[in-house]
Amino acid sequence: MFRMATLGMLLGMLMASCFTFCLSHQNSEFALTNPEKSSTEERERKETTAEEELDPRVLEVFHPTHEWQALRPGQTVAAGSHVRLNLQTGEREVKLQDEDKFRNNLKGLKKGKRLDINSNTYTSQDLKSALAKFKEGSEMESSKEDKARQAKVKRLFRPIEELKKDFEELNVVIETDMQIMVRLINKFNSSSSSLEEKIAALFDLEYYVHQMDNAQDLLSFGGLQVVINGLNSTDPLVKEYAAFVLGAAFSSNPKVQVEAIEGGALQKLLVILATEQPLTAKKKVLFALCSLLRHFPYAQQQFLKLGGLHVLRSLVQEKGMEVLAVRVVTLLYDLVTEKMFAEEEAELTQETSPEKLQQYRQVHLLPGLREQGWCEITAHLLALPEHDAREKVLQTLDALLATCRDRYRQDPQLSRMLVSLQAEYQALAALELQDGEDEGYFRELLGSINSLLKELR
């Protein structure tokens, strides 16, 4: 029994050994393996295969010509060939380099320079060096352009020093505006100057004083007072052109306006308008008066105190002065609306006592117009034949409506004139509509007439 048991144990151990040996030599398809280790081994196997494919000893050598040819995968080219990537087809193309360039590359190689086979072989240092040279080249190019431009400017224009020197040799002096105005004032004020020279000096001076700074410069050296005194001249032409200069200097220039009032310009202008003078002289004087009064409430106060409304009424009623009548009416309209706008602006800004508004409140223009008969004078000017004149009169009638409403209603001539003009402009407005003008000029005038008639009923 003991012997049988020993044989059984030996047999079992033998069978276990045989089973273990068989498992160790089993096919790998049925073996238990690690997935990660397997994939790594597969990747290494593929890379080894790819390296073998790229081995220069295995690749097919392509022999290029002087024409571009497509390079297939797995082909290689000899050193010195010109390779490019065709961006349209996506293929690499190759051809032989030009012999001269190839020789130059070989010479560079012999001198220790790296052979430039394709653009991908540039080092970072090469690129930096090339960029530095590019910047230097662009700076040199820009410098050349600047020098060329400066040379062109020098050819076209000469320095002011050269011009002054040349003018001095020709006895011609370059003057500033200030120097020119001083010279013109001296010419005008000189007793040795003829009438023609004085008029020419004033005519030239008017051109310069249109500029605000020049007008103030005229004031700074006393030239303004010289021109104001020219209004006292016995010659109508001198009065006319002196007023012409003053009108240009006063326009929208408060500093000059203040000095003109203090220099007695307002009184002198009113005297000329109140006396017998040529129409041309009165036109220029009225222009100067309008420039002095606009946007200057203090001057408007002085105008009323000096009887300015009476002077203008006499001027309008004077025979042959119909042209000036429209300008006078326009001035009155501007003064009335100017005060209204100042009051409206103060209400919008909620300022109860701004200095300018207080000055305007001291200008009692509307009562003066009513007292001196301007309601009737303005209404009768509708008889003027020009459409432009009628438009300005209608504007003034509307501006004076609150002050002159009862006077308008009591004036039968005004009612007849408005009805007549209504019929005339209805016909003209109809013609405008026929021509396709929905908002024509005559239609606007007709609207003003209809509005005024409605207010007077």
Question: Would you kindly provide a written description of the structure presented here, covering whatever features stand out?
Answer:
With 457 residues, this protein is mainly alpha-helical. The chain has 23 helices and 5 strands. It has helices at residues 2-24, 35-53, 99-110, 124-156, 160-169, 177-189, 195-209, 212-220, 223-229, 236-250, 254-262, 265-274, 279-293, 297-305, 308-317, 322-349, 355-361, 365-371, 374-380, 387-399, 401-409, 412-434, 441-456, and strands at 60-62, 69-71, 75-77, 81-85, 92-96. The strands form 2 sheets. Strands 2-5-4 form a 3-stranded antiparallel beta sheet, with no helix packed on it. A two-stranded parallel ribbon has the order 1-3. Helix 6 runs antiparallel to helix 7 (195-209). The longest helix is centred in the N-terminal third of the chain and has 33 residues, at 124-156. It is found in: Endoplasmic reticulum lumen. This is Nucleotide exchange factor SIL1. Keywords: Endoplasmic reticulum, Glycoprotein, Protein transport, Signal, Translocation, Transport. Residues 141-218 form the Nucleotide exchange factor Fes1 domain. Residues 32-54 are annotated as: Disordered.
